Amino acid sequence: MVFEAILYLAVLIIAAKLLGELMHRINQPTIIGNVLAGIIVGPALLAIVEPINAIEFFTSIGVFFLFFLIGLQEIDLAGIFRVMRGRIFAGSAVAFLIPFFVAGFFGLSLDMNFTQAFAIGSVIAASSLGVTAKILSDLGKLKSAIGLEIFTVTAIVEFIAIIVTSVLIQVNSSDTPVVSEFFWLFAKMIIFFAVAALLSVYVLPKFFRMLKKHLRGKQIYFGVIIGVILLVAYLAEISGIHGAVGALLLGIAMSRMAKDEYSDISTNIGVIGHGLFIPIFFAGIGLHFSLGFLNLDLWIIAVFIGIIIGVKFVSSYIAVRIAKMRPATTVAYGVMAKGAVDLALMLSLLQAHILDDELFSLLVFGTLLTMVISSVELQRKLKKIIHVKVGTLELGLLPIYFRRVVSDVPAIAVIVTDFPRITPLLTVKAFLEQNELNKNPFLVIDANDKLVGLVSKREINRYHKKTFDAITIDDVMYKKVYTVSPDEYLYSVIQKMNSHPFDIIPVVDPVNEHVIGIVTTQSIMNLLTETQKS
Q1: What does the angle CA 49 – CA 54 – CA 55 come to, to the nearest 5 degrees?
Q2: CA atoms of 31 and 41, how far apart (whole Å)
Q3: Residues 6+ apart with CB under 8 A from 430
Q4: Is 488 exposed, middle or buried (0-12, 13-18, 19+ CB in 10 A)?
Q5: What is the CATH number of domain 2-399?
Q6: Which of 37, 64, 112, 326 has a 20 to 30 Å separation from 213 between CA atoms?
Q7: Which run of H or E residues covers position 518?
């Protein structure tokens, strides 16, 4: 049995890598090659490899690596929360909800139970960022406004799908699911994430730096990190949360680590994950694929394929129009893209016995077909784009995105040296007489030329007009202001910008603590425009 497992792994790895390379050469996602490898060598065709327990063990490790890297590299909660009330989030919600409900109600019409129908709806509604980001990068469009637009909406849809599907899987495992279980599961996720975030900010960086300092072998350091990922996945499972979600939340929390720690972990865990475990995971999906889905009624096959491709594209297009992004069709093809997340969630549904083999295979087939269509169309549309006008400042500025595209660009590169400033001793009445009040904040600087706060229309409107001649700017200003140094990297700047209620952040000289300028969302967007033009 042991030697049989070794043979199976060898065949899977070689087939997955070779077919992945073939897909790459014809400008298709390598994931398709990985899954096709499992289909070809698995029970569906050649029957060389069987999905035995040893293979399932490796695919489980693969899904933990996959979701950890998704959390680390693709999802930024601060950016998502920043656009929660804006049209970007509204569009993203529409992109998810339309196929979610269409597929869910269609499932109910086929006599599926609520959990099964809407779990299927959730994976059909999901979008996947990895494939889209690779296409944008290959065509030089990742460092552009359209790249940011696609990246933002897809990341939000991806995150919603993961959470909704995970909740439905956990509720399905209960004998008597009730509404309180939904809330309790969300509460456990929040608690789990909070603990992971605290560890990632206050404990893990110091722990990892200590390991790097005292351990001679670099392999030991990354071995410990792998152990932490698996340990967190285990703790999530025994806490009633899917292990993959635990790994995802750990990745999200660790994405806020300092640049050096982040780069080391992202690069090396990515090499290990994408080099071995993740291709095995996708090939493992192919092992569960069966042509038996062709025995389903043709109208059922046609409707599901129509929802996966047609409804998903229409919902993406409507979402893009709501978000007022341009060009709408191009962005829609990026948002409808499917890939790693969808396939991983489908396998989770199969393992939870929410999907049977036939329906699982049909959904995998539809997903692979969508990946090809969206990939071809997105590449075709992007090649025609010369310059895209910057969209809207409501667009969430995601640190994760800027970590990918401008990781070495400092704040000084986008600094604005002409900024409004006032003294804290000025009365609100005098301030309003001298300045036009709008939502743009003023920097409040004292007699020693030190920054002491920010003030805008929002802060002043909290007080009654009759008090304006009696209160000063010092009384109303926002005092918990984040600042950055001139050489601080943009992704760190945006992290801080997302942590306070303003679209600017002051740049302070670290020597004399004087304000030398500000970074604004507009100056960051201008950087993308200039990059795109060049």
Answers
A1: 45
A2: 16
A3: none
A4: buried
A5: 1.20.1530.20
A6: 64
A7: strand 515-520
CB 459 within 8 A of CB 477: yes
Query: Can you list the alpha helix ranges (DSSP code H) found in 199-256?
Result: 204-214, 218-238, 243-254
Please report which confidence band the pLDDT of residue 168 belongs to, taking 50, 70 and 90 as the band edges: confident
Residue type, position 104, single letter: G
Give the CB-side neighbour count of residue 394, counting CA atoms within 13 A: 14
Stretch 349-362: mean pLDDT: 93
Enter the tokens of residue 10: 């060898």
Q: pLDDT tens across 461-497, in order?
A: 888 888 888 888 889 898 888 899 999 888 778 778 7
pLDDT digits (tens, 9 = 90+) for 181-215: 667 777 777 787 777 767 766 777 777 777 777 77
pLDDT of the residue at 388 = 40
- DSSP secondary structure code for residue 275 in this structure: I
User: What pTM was estimated for this model as a whole?
Assistant: 0.78
489 forms beta bridges with 410
Q: Which two tokens stand for residue 404?
A: 């990918």
Give the domain ranges of the chain. 2-399, 406-533
**Residue the block writes with tokens 């996947």:** 128
Superfamily of domain 406-533: CBS-domain (3.10.580.10)
Tell the residue number behind the tokens 């996720």, with chain if given: 189
Beta 442-445 vs 421-422: how paired, if at all?
parallel
**Contact by Cβ (8 Å): 5, 52:** yes
Question: Exposed (0-12), middle (13-18) or buried (19+): which is 154, by Cβ within 10 Å?
Answer: buried
49: pLDDT strictly greater than 90: yes
Q: Which two tokens stand for residue 508?
A: 């302070």
Structure tokens at 133: 């980001």
Q: Which of 480, 491, 492, 488 is nearest to 517 (CA)?
A: 488
Taking the C-alpha atoms of residue 402 and residue 400, their distance in angstroms, rounded to an integer, is 6
